[in-house]
Amino acid sequence: MRKLWGLLAVLLLGSVMLVSVWGKFPKFVAMSEITVAQATSRLGVQLPMVGREESKRATPVESIVKPQTLSKTYYYRFGTEVPDKMVHTFEKAVAVYNETGIVNLVAGDATAHQNEIAFFAYSKEMPENQSTYLELGKGGPEIEEVTGFQGYTANHARAGMNLKYPQSVRLSVAIHEIGHAVGLDHSHSHNSVMYPIDQGTTHLSAGDLKTLRHLYQKV
């Protein structure tokens, strides 16, 4: 069983960063979680952008993910609360990412040193003062970095759908949330599956693919 000493929690830029010491080697954990929304008929203004400024034609990168530090292979698993329809939808989204050949998502349990994506379901009703949009899903990376001779960097990510709204369980939402899990941030581009308001996009744009290559293909 792992022992944890000197736990420090700091709230920074909407993400939670934890610093601890594991054995003799410093261990750093950074977490980020971002949502995707659907505009309602009452939407009068554009939903504020959550993501960072987009560079030319490339989808932005989650700030806690460093390019070419992670393995391209992820092991994924489903929580017991996830209904069959959501399982099938996420599995179709997994196939979309695997078809790129850039990342490799495999069903199964990961070790502490390996990348993983935990798929989950939750229920959240939007408050009246935020009724101009609906939260369809949320997800993001959790980067664990251990330094030293036996050091490693792994992403223990999460991706989920909001069962409060039936329109959440769709392929476009699943692809978007997996995108956050593997390190893609929100994009200003309407062509990107990472646009923060769901548009029903079920393919990765050229900008999405460019960033995936930047993150996972060794140079």
Topology:
Layout (H helix, E strand, L loop, with lengths): L4 E8 L2 E8 L2 E7 L2 E6 L33 E6 L5 H15 L5 E4 L7 E8 L10 E8 L1 E5 L5 E11 L8 H12 L23 H11 L3
Parallel strand pairs: 5-6, 5-7, 7-10
Antiparallel strand pairs: 1-2, 2-3, 3-9, 4-8, 8-10, 9-10
Helix pairs in contact: 1-2
Give a brief outline of the structure.
The chain has helices at residues 84-98, 171-182, 206-216; strands spanning 5-12, 15-22, 25-31, 34-39, 73-78, 104-107, 115-122, 133-140, 142-146, 152-162.
Protein described:
17% of the residues lie in helices and 32% in strands. It has helices at 84-98, 171-182, 206-216; strands spanning 5-12, 15-22, 25-31, 34-39, 73-78, 104-107, 115-122, 133-140, 142-146, 152-162. Strands 1, 2, 3, 4, 5, 6, 7, 8, 9 and 10 form a 10-stranded mixed beta sheet that branches. Strand 5 (73-78), helix 1 (84-98) and strand 6 (104-107) form a beta-alpha-beta unit. Helix 1 (84-98) packs across helix 2. The relative contact order is 0.23. Residues 1-29 and 39-55 have low confidence and may be disordered.
